[in-house]
Amino acid sequence: MDMKKRIHLELRNRTPSDVKELVLDNCRSNEGKIEGLTDEFEELEFLSTINVGLTSVANLPKLNKLKKLELSDNRISGGLEVLAEKCPNLTHLNLSGNKIKDLSTIEPLKKLESLKSLDLFNCEVTNLNDYRENVFNLLPQLTYLDGYDKEDKEAPDSDAEAYVGLDDDDDDEDEEEEYDEDAAPGDEDEEEGEDDDEEEEGEEEEEEDISGEEEEEEELNDGEVEDCEEERGQKRKREQDEEGEEDDD
Question: For the whole model, what pTM was predicted?
Answer without folding.
Answer: 0.65
